[in-house]
Amino acid sequence: MRTIVVVGASLAGVRAAATLRAKGFDGRLVLVGDEQHEPYDRPPLSKQFLAGEWDAGRVTLPDATPASLDVERHRGTRAVTLDVADRRVDLDDGEQIRFDGLVVATGATPRRLPSQPELPGVHVLRTLDDALALRADLERTPGRVVVVGAGFIGAEVAATCRGRGLPVTLVEALPLPLARVLGETVGRVVAAVHSDHGVDLRLGVGVEGFVGTGRVEGLRLGDGTSVRADVVVVGIGVAPTTGWLEGSGLRLADGVVCDPSCVAADGIVAAGDVARWAHPRYGSIRVEHWENAIAQGEHAAARLLAGSGPGEPFSPVPWFWSDQYDRKLQAVGRPSAGDEVVVVDGSLAERRFVALYGRDGVVQGAVGMNRPSAVVRWRDRLAEPVGWDEAVAGATPGRRG
Amino acid sequence: MRVVVDFDLCESNAICMAVAPEVFEVRDDDFLYVLDDHPDESLRDKVEEAVRRCPKQAISIEED
Questions:
Q1: ipTM > 0.95?
Q2: What are the backbone angles phi and psi of residue A311, rounded to the nearest 5°?
Q3: Which domains, from first to last, does chain B contain?
């Protein structure tokens, strides 16, 4: 291969580029990203950066930076078209790049509410520019923050804003925070944690509309009430950034569809939030977590260099964490809201526990709060299927919370 | 090589333990213990992976 193009210059793309070099690829390596900043780390944006503890220079990516990778860097440049047959990527500055290998790592884009206006004071949080704008607004307008969506980003933003001493309302369409992924048992604990920290929780209620003309002044909610807002942060999830791949010939279905080894087409791999692949154990999945972006970026790059053939499947046990106040949530595997949940370690009452998630007689995942070592041990165990009965047999009923 | 952990940054996410249990252990007290701060060269790949995977970028390697 003479030319490899990596589209997407965040964690998955940068890890892919670094892996290509580490594995001896010495051809032309092109790294395209639509942001002006050097690659940076996203998790601190909703935590230390938003809190004002870290500045932008501290939000750097670990290990390799583009300068050390000998890459041809296109900053602030968007890939607009992929032609699979012609092996060509077109950029929004008019440049066309022919490639022998391509890594698709364009990540995801925040979803917006149908009623969401372009109005000062209304924010999303995905990029460093988003975080800079939100932080500046919180400093300029230190009033009530309304967070729409109690998923991981929303819950972290609510916690950080409370840490800044700001009054916070958290609006969630589901009955509990994090309920879509973690279900009700853990969701209730998370709700109590936020409530104890003074968050005004509005659960099971949607947003009808925004109030304000020159600047946001509040929200109208689905239950007929209103809430005053000085700053609004909408955190209702993300959608994979695949618009530029429409008509390319790649199969798209809530992400770029890949085989078990992350190959989307001959000489084309995908990694990170944008990639949907056939996990040998979990089936067709897409994972939006930090550590997966690293591991999949590395795997996809190695896969690209390995050439044709079936390739090594990418079969991690997913892991992620979320920090809210002094609580650290961590999850491994594929827990989901419909699973049976049993606390096997600690208790919900002390907010320090491990809960197992089971379905079809098999442990699907484990979720811990302030139990990092136990969660990691479950990750090891879940590398192979673990029977549900066997797993919960060790749990003391009195300690199930 | 010498393994250095910045304990002001470390939040005991325990990913290092998953990658290199010979070197890192997060115990039940939720603190990270470095079991071997001069690990054998045969563990270099694992330690480097732990450096890359640490969510807090709290681990580094210094050459002796």
A1: no
A2: 80, 155
A3: 2-62 (3.30.70.20)
